């Protein structure tokens, strides 16, 4: 009895030590820490919006969908607009004064520009870009987290069952994964999202479906190969001989060895989910909710002419696109950090 | 070798059948359709769908239409991104790269995860700025004047495939004969010979038109793929650096650079091929997203005037346009057809990589004796 207790304690201590060492290696990995910092910033952004809109920000101005901040500015009414900052064309001039003539100075309602009230400026219809950026963060974050957890759980369960049972169960499961790999989860989710069924898919459901597809596809294949090698290691036989049942072997002995790899696979998989989700809303499909994709879409649709788009509205496109890119990148960077942390060197020099 | 290839083809066919069945289920119960589209029982639909596929009409019509453009973008993007990405990944993964290894890694991650519409927008913006808003219009006239011939695209693809095989065979023979020919010579041959062939056959003008038209998507996809290749190459370099022979070489005092370039990077090429097999479908998805982003505006009806060229005034006539046009028209049969074509393309590319792998590393051919 006493021997068993000490063995358990030393095992616990060894595990703790290994964990501390892994964290030490993670802290030294610059990409990994960059990812953690970025993720923290996005988490703060997701929390900040509901607080700001309830306390400081006036919903009439800062609501991402209905809030508008317009000011009246004087502009020159010209036939052909060459400088949108100081000139307006026929339609805008008529809105202000229908008797105006080309050459007149007219008062036009224009979006409030960059300033203390709008640190990231406003888009063509006067919506605050910072408010839109913060408002889009929470749904993207919820989606990414659901996708990550579902991917990991599905991948680990499929891989563990396939490796433990072996034989025809393994053959069937890995063949299904191989077939799913032909059509990766991001593309499937884009197709689902753009079909009318997509209107009922919220961020959490999107993440869940993505996790099912990605977890059963690429991630399961990667984790399965690790599970098969783990099953061949001596401690599994030891556990089996000492009378451990199937569920105990899988849960206590097999799964803990799969978790680091599953974490890496899930973090890399999430990048696809983020891009797919943003892409669906960028195409103006999917559930009717505010997201970074919608932000870019509405900013562009407000200026269908490529020339004016490039010269006046580019900042919304760039800010929204960068937000999507950086959120996806932060998950990938954390995955690289984890890879460094769990990668034990062969020679200790 | 033949047995191995036959086995891989058979496994590929099984995968394809599973994939097609999965697609059928998805289309039958998830995709919305016009009233009375399916008719009959699910089993009848399934068998008629399968027999329709067996006729391979889908592949033939795709070959005449969108397939060669997607393949051309893929071939050029991978062909440019692979050597560059492998070189950069080698630096990022080498333990004694003095500094910049972390920033290279972060840069590669950003290249890999960049939101494709942002990338596309940036490229269009650059072209417009540098050509005084004329560049995209010029590309559009190329398209409108019918200068893009899919027969020419196919002969480009075939020329590239033949020249690559010939150069690879020549490289293999010289290395067998213990003659050292610099890699640069092979690379130059690989680039120059196709153009000489095209010039000789009098189709250089058409080829240049096609390349000019596809240059934007090729650049965009190259950036995405290069990010992925750098990351994969970094990991394989790190793995290869742990091998015993690296330790031996260092102990014998082989210079650091030589160990990195000759011992580690070359050894890392094979596992890299192995890993890229998994990436092929993801590269294709990235390609399709880029294609759609370029033609954006038509799909969401943003421009409203029925302009088939979208907001950016440009479109790629590739596979993805077919997928999304048929989604709009509630026509799951065409969506499925296009997706089957994607699946077949992925399988064929995967098979090519596996055969290449087996040719480079014959250990694969003897099962049970793998390391």
How big is the Rg of chain A? 27 Å
Instruction: Report the major sheet of chain B.
Output: none
Give start-end ranges of low-pLDDT stretches of chain B.
Answer: 298-306
Q: Tell me the distance between the termini of chain B.
A: 19 Å
| Overall residue-averaged pLDDT value of chain A | 81
Number of strands of chain B: 0
Uncertain segments of chain A of ≥5 residues (pLDDT<50)?
A: 1-7
Give the tally of β-strands of chain A: 3
Provide the number of structural domains of chain B. 2
Order of helices and strands of chain A: HHHEEHEHHHHHHHHH
**Spatial arrangement of strands, main beta sheet of chain A:** 2-1-3
Largest interface (CB within 8 Å) is between: A-B, 63 and 62 residues
The general outline of chain A is elongated
Q: From the helix content, strand content and strand pairing of chain B, which structural class follows?
A: mainly alpha
Strand content of chain B: under 5%
Determine the number of helices of chain A (DSSP H or I, runs of at least 4 residues). Answer: 13
Give the quaternary arrangement of the chains. Answer: heterodimer
- Residue share in helices of chain B? over 70%
- Largest beta sheet of chain A, briefly? 3 strands, mixed
Q: What is the strand content of chain A?
A: under 5%
Order of secondary-structure elements of chain B: HHHHHHHHHHHHHH
Per-chain topology:
The complex is a heterodimer of chains A (349) and B (371).
Chain A: H1 2-28, H2 30-55, H3 59-62, E1 70-77, E2 87-88, H4 90-96, E3 105-111, H5 129-165, H6 167-181, H7 185-194, H8 203-231, H9 234-241, H10 246-282, H11 292-301, H12 306-312, H13 314-342
Helix pairs in contact in A: 1-13, 2-5, 2-13, 5-6, 5-8, 5-10, 5-13, 6-8, 7-8, 7-10, 8-10, 9-10, 10-11, 10-13, 11-13
Chain B: H1 2-29, H2 42-54, H3 57-64, H4 67-93, H5 101-113, H6 116-130, H7 135-144, H8 150-176, H9 183-200, H10 204-240, H11 244-251, H12 256-294, H13 319-328, H14 332-360
Helix pairs in contact in B: 1-2, 1-14, 4-5, 4-8, 4-10, 4-12, 5-10, 6-12, 8-9, 10-12, 11-12, 12-13, 12-14, 13-14
């Amino acid at each position: 009895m006493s021997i068993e207790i000490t063995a358990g304690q030393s095992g616990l201590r060894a595990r703790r030590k290994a964990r501390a060492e892994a964290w030490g290696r993670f802290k030294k990995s610059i990409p990994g820490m960059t990812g953690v910092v970025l993720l923290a910033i996005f988490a703060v952004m997701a929390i900040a919006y509901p607080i700001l809109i309830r306390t400081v920000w006036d919903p009439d101005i800062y609501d991402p969908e209905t809030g508008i901040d317009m000011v009246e500015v004087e502009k020159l009414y010209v036939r052909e607009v060459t400088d949108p900052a100081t000139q307006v064309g026929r339609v805008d001039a008529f809105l202000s004064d229908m008797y105006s003539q080309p050459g007149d100075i007219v008062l036009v309602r224009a979006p409030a520009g960059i300033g203390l009230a709008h640190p990231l400026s406003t888009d063509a219809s006067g919506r605050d870009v910072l408010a839109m950026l913060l408002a889009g963060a929470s749904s993207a974050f919820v989606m990414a987290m659901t996708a990550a957890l579902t991917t990991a759980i599905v991948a680990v369960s499929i891989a563990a069952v396939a490796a433990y049972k072996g034989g025809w169960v393994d053959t069937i499961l890995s063949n299904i994964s191989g077939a799913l790999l032909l059509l990766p989860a991001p593309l499937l989710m884009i197709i689902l999202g753009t079909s009318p069924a997509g209107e009922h898919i919220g961020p959490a459901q999107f993440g869940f479906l993505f996790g099912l597809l990605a977890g059963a596809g690429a991630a399961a294949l990667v984790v399965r190969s690790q599970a098969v090698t783990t099953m061949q290691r001596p401690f599994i036989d030891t556990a089996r001989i000492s009378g451990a049942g199937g569920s105990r072997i899988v849960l206590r002995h097999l799964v803990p060895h799969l978790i680091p790899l599953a974490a890496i696979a899930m973090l890399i998989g999430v990048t696809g989910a983020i891009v797919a989700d943003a892409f669906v809303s960028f195409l103006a499909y999917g559930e009717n909710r505010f997201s970074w994709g919608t932000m870019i879409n509405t900013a562009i649709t407000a200026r269908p002419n490529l020339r004016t788009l490039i010269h006046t509205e580019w900042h919304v496109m760039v800010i929204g696109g960068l937000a999507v890119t950086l959120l996806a990148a932060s998950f990938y960077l954390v995955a690289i950090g984890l890879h460094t942390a769990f990668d034990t060197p062969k020679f200790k020099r | 070798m033949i047995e191995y290839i036959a086995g891989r083809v058979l496994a590929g066919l099984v995968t394809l059948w599973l994939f097609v069945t999965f697609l059928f289920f998805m289309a039958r119960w998830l995709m919305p359709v016009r009233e009375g589209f399916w008719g009959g029982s699910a089993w009848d639909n399934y068998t008629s769908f399968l027999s329709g596929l067996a006729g391979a009409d889908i592949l033939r019509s795709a070959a005449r239409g969108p397939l060669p453009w997607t393949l051309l973008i893929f071939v050029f993007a991978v062909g440019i991104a692979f050597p560059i990405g492998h070189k950069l990944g080698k630096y990022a993964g080498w333990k004694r790269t003095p500094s910049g290894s972390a920033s290279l890694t972060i840069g590669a991650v950003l290249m890999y995860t960049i939101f494709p519409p942002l990338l596309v927008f940036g490229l269009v913006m650059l072209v417009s700025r540098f050509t005084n808003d004329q560049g995209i219009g010029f590309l559009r006239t190329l398209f409108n004047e019918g200068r893009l011939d899919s027969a020419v695209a196919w002969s480009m693809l075939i020329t590239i495939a033949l020249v690559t095989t010939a150069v690879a065979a020549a490289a293999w023979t010289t290395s067998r004969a213990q003659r050292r020919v610099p890699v640069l010579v092979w690379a130059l041959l690989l680039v120059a010979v196709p153009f000489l062939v095209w010039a000789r056959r009098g189709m250089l003008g058409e080829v240049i038109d096609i390349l000019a038209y596809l240059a934007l998507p090729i650049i965009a996809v190259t950036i995405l793929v290069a990010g992925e290749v750098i990351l994969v190459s970094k990991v394989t370099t790190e793995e290869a650096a742990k091998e015993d022979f690296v330790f031996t070489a260092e102990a014998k005092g082989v210079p650091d650079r030589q160990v990195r370039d000759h011992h580690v990077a070359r050894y890392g090429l094979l596992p890299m091929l192995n890993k890229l097999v998994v990436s092929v479908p993801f590269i294709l998805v990235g390609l399709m997203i880029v294609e759609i982003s370029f033609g954006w505006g038509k799909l969401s009806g943003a421009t409203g005037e029925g302009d088939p060229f979208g907001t950016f005034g440009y479109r790629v006539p590739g596979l993805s346009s077919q997928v999304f046009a048929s989604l709009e028209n509630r026509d799951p049969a065409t969506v499925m057809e296009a997706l089957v074509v994607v699946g077949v393309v992925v399988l064929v590319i995967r098979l090519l990589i596996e055969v290449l792998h087996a040719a480079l590393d014959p250990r694969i051919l003897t099962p049970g004796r793998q390391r």
